[in-house]
Amino acid sequence: MDIANVHSRSVAEFLARLEAAGDLGTGRTPCTDWDVRELVNHVVAEDLWTVPLMGGATVEEVGDQFDGDVLGDDPLGIARAAAESAVEATARALAADSIVHLSFGDTPAEEYAYQLAADHLIHGWDLAVATGGDPRLDPELVEAMAGWFAEREDLYRSAGAIGERPPDGASTAPQDQLLRAFGRRAHWTPRS
Prior knowledge:
With about 190 residues, the protein is mostly helical. About 60% of the residues lie in helices and about 5% in strands. It contains 8 helices and 2 strands. The protein has helices spanning about 5-20, 35-55, 60, 75-95, 110-130, 140-150, 155-160, 175-180, and strands spanning about 100, 105-110. Helix 2 runs antiparallel to helix 5 (about 110-130) and helix 5 (about 110-130) crosses helix 6. The mean pLDDT is about 95.
């Protein structure tokens, strides 16, 4: 599966989970630093950042315009608009083999698109389990992310971008293995 498809499908999965979530309250998520609304705000802000970054802007040029609460009074509407723009900008940048100017250095658009897809997929799962939604991830996306992330897990962990791998569980299901790689307990609940 090409990365443009992986990205757009992961964004669509996140939006579907957001639509199913209903009210965005302050419930717990697997991301201990964020409640449900903060988690959604993070992903939507990332979509907002995607447009200028995939268009060639630097982090410094974007500045702080997407800091704070980007959800306002219409989280779902804002999320949909941001996602649509991010998918379009990503497809354009991928078609042009663009370079993206990230905080840690210049990066091919393809690599950045994988990072974005992973965030949407994993945080989509976070949102689903936090709000009682369907935690099943698209198996093709799980396979694509697992293949990409295998070489990057240690780097992400050493940079503090993901938590420690939970102890080995009995499950060898691909989704459970991917969640563990991203520092998640596959059977997390808001009460655990």
